[in-house]
Design brief:
Layout: H1 5-10, H2 15-23, H3 27-39, H4 45-52, H5 56-69, E1 72-78, E2 84-90, H6 95-122
Antiparallel strand pairs: 1-2
Helix pairs in contact: 2-3, 3-5, 4-5
Length: about 130
C-alpha cells in the first residue's frame, strides 16, 4: 500500500531514502547503488552479489531495477578471443539530483491541478438541506 504524503513527511528520511521514494527501490537496490558509489569502478553482477552478500539472481534483479530507473549504466566488455561480459557503473552522479528535481516539479504540478479539481468539485456553494419533519 502506498504511504500517505503526511506519513512520508513525518519520517526522518536519509539521503538514500530519496532513491527509495523517487524510484520505489528496495533496500538491496540502495545498497548496490551505495556500493557502486564507494567502489567508483565498474563491477560485474558476481562481484556485486559477493559484496552485498546475496545470491547472484537477487543481485541481478536489483541491478535490473537500477538500470530501469537510469541510476546505473551497463557496459559490455569484449574478450579478445570472442565473447563478452557486462559491468555496471553509477551514472554521472550530478545528473541524478537534476532528474529528481524535474520529477518533483512534475509531481507538484500534478498535485496543484488535482487540488484545483478537488476545489472545483467540493467547494461549490450549496444550500443546506431542509430539515426533515417527522
Amino acid at each position: 500500500m502506498t504511504e500517505s504524503m503526511s506519513g512520508m513527511l513525518q519520517k526522518d528520511m536519509q539521503c538514500e531514502g530519496l532513491l527509495e521514494c523517487f524510484h520505489d527501490l528496495k533496500e538491496i537496490d540502495t545498497d548496490i547503488f551505495q556500493l557502486l558509489h564507494e567502489r567508483q569502478r565498474p563491477l560485474t553482477v558476481d562481484e556485486i552479489a559477493e559484496q552485498v552478500e546475496r545470491e547472484r539472481s537477487t543481485a541481478y534483479r536489483a541491478v535490473q531495477r537500477l538500470l530501469q530507473t537510469g541510476l546505473i549504466e551497463k557496459e559490455q566488455v569484449n574478450y579478445e578471443q570472442g565473447g563478452y561480459y557486462h559491468v555496471y557503473r553509477l551514472r554521472y552522479a550530478k545528473e541524478i539530483p537534476n532528474e529528481m528535481q524535474r520529477t518533483l516539479n512534475d509531481w507538484y504540478a500534478q498535485m496543484v491541478q488535482l487540488i484545483d479539481e478537488f476545489n472545483d468539485r467540493y467547494s461549490e456553494e450549496t444550500e443546506p438541506a431542509a430539515p426533515v419533519e417527522s
